[in-house]
Write a structure and sequence with these properties.
Shape: globular
Oligomer: single chain
Order of helices and strands: HHHEEEEHEHEHHEHEEHEEEHEHHHHH
Strand content: 5-15%
Helix content: 40-55%
Bound molecules: glutamic acid
Number of helices: 15
Radius of gyration: 21 Å
Strand order of the largest sheet: 10-9-8-7-11-12-13
Distance between the termini: 51 Å
Length: 453
């Protein structure tokens, strides 16, 4: 890859979200008056930026920045997680909120998109400090979240415990009403639903199973017997490794923020877990080859699961990806340049907005149950519903994908007529097909509702 191309790569996630949106527009059926509509569809409805003073354990006051972006409510209330991470900023949260809108539309849950984040390093914070940051953030958001308006959930470095604090804080501010549905991903004793913790990875496995069954990956027809490499050892990465292993795959590499472990014959996941619990990293698991954080992206495998952060597969390392298919557990792990390079090499990329939508799909089941005050459900039932929903969504995206490929000349002509100076249209990949599905659904909802007043 020429150095100049690498240097030119724009890694701003919100710009990347925009370029993915722009790539889909020429394929959206109803292009009438697309200029105003596309702005309305892309720009966030609301951006909240908060200053959060928190008393730390040693008595000093530390000021944190918190964000909540409500991207779009065309199809329902805002939905999306809250992450705690040192590099959180407005552009990242806006991009993640935008991806939530498309994600909910692709799997057809009646939510819009939202996301939140606090710029902080949870690894350096005590539990009590984390609780105070959470409570201050939620109380400062006030009625910018709510069971019918914008519903948070877990994301990077936030879990069921954080969701319990979110619920409790909101409940303290809204006494005498039932508010379990204000947040999902809660503990089971507090309105949570079995299967939510594993849902993102479980959904990813169902999508992958369906894609392979449908013959979309040359030379690979099943998970059983395949070699899987996973980058990221948080909720999505760890459970993806465990679930795919249970389905008969060999996990050849994993990595977390401190480094990773590889074994071409297959890792012993119990040993990896035991080492991770003790050392805080998978690096150094006995009997494995050491890797750095990005190591799993270059390991020879059949299935590559980037499940860490944005911008992990870039123009800098894409040529070293050695997999038959990439399935995105993280949000935005592949840059647009790397996306094109992979597709040009015949490596399909199953996009985040489909691949990791299992989390929000099960969040919807939890929310629905909380609103109706229903009794607890069984995990098997949750997974059966999730499987059906993910397979349906995958089939929907594949249908669009093949339609866009079969009719490329017509789309090219139409686009050329509308935009004579624009470069010719590239064939649509799976991300574009998923985006066309999502944008088309949101577009249609907005168009039918009309512009207020
Ligand atoms: N944070 C997760 C995601 O990126 C889950 C969102 C939710 O359940 O609302 O999809």
């Amino acid at each position: 890859m020429p150095k100049s191309d690498q240097a030119a790569e724009d890694l701003n996630p919100h710009h990347i979200a925009r370029s993915q949106f722009d790539a889909a527009l020429p394929f959206v059926e109803d292009l009438s008056d697309w200029r105003g509509m596309s702005e309305w569809l892309f720009d966030p409805e609301r951006v909240v930026k908060l200053t959060l003073p928190v008393v730390m354990d040693d008595g000093h006051v530390q000021v944190f920045r918190g964000y909540r972006v409500l991207h779009n409510t065309a199809r329902g209330p805002g939905k999306g997680g809250i992450r705690f991470y040192p590099t959180v900023d407005e552009d990242e949260v806006s991009a993640l909120a935008t991806w939530m809108t498309w994600k909910c539309a692709v799997v057809d849950v009646p939510f819009g998109g939202a996301k939140g984040g606090v710029e902080c390093d949870p690894l350096q914070m005590s539990i009590a400090e984390k609780r105070r940051v959470t409570r201050r953030f939620i109380s400062s958001l006030g009625d910018d979240i709510g069971p019918y308006t914008d519903i948070p959930a877990p994301d990077m470095n936030t879990d069921a415990q954080v969701m319990a604090w979110i619920y409790d804080t909101y409940q303290m501010m809204h006494r005498h009403t039932i508010n379990l549905a204000v947040v999902t991903g809660k503990p089971l004793d507090l309105g949570g639903i079995p299967g939510r913790t594993t849902a993102t990875a479980q959904g990813l496995a169902y999508v992958l199973e369906r894609i392979l069954e449908r013959g979309e990956v040359p030379g690979l027809s099943r998970i059983e017997g395949s070699r899987v490499s996973v980058q990221g050892y948080g909720n999505v990465g760890r459970y993806s490794a465990l679930i795919l292993h249970d389905m008969g795959a060999r996990i050849v590499a994993v990595a977390d923020i401190g480094g990773g472990a590889a074994n071409p014959d297959g890792l012993d996941l119990e040993e990896v877990d035991a080492h991770f619990r003790e050392a805080g990293t998978t690096l150094g698991t006995p009997g494995t080859q050491p890797l750095d954080v990005k190591g799993p992206l270059e390991v020879e495998c059949d299935i590559l699961v980037p499940a860490a952060l944005e911008n992990q597969i870039t123009l800098e390392n894409v040529d070293r990806v050695n997999a038959s298919v990439v399935i995105e557990g993280a949000n935005g792990p592949t840059t647009p340049g790397a996306d094109r390079a992979l597709v040009d090499r015949g490596i399909p990329v199953i996009p985040d907005i489909l691949a990791n939508a299992g989390g929000v799909a099960v969040s919807y089941f939890e929310w629905e149950r909380n609103l109706a005050n229903k009794l607890q459900v069984e995990e098997d039932e949750v997974n059966a519903r999730l499987r059906a929903q993910m397979r349906r969504a995958t089939d929907g995206v594949l249908e669009v994908y093949h339609r866009l490929q079969d009719h490329l000349p017509e789309y090219r002509d139409r686009w050329h007529e509308a935009m004579p100076d624009a470069p010719p249209l590239r064939a649509a990949d799976m991300r574009t097909a998923a985006m066309v599905t999502a944008v088309g659904r949101c577009w249609s909802a907005l168009a039918q509702r009309g512009v207020w007043p």
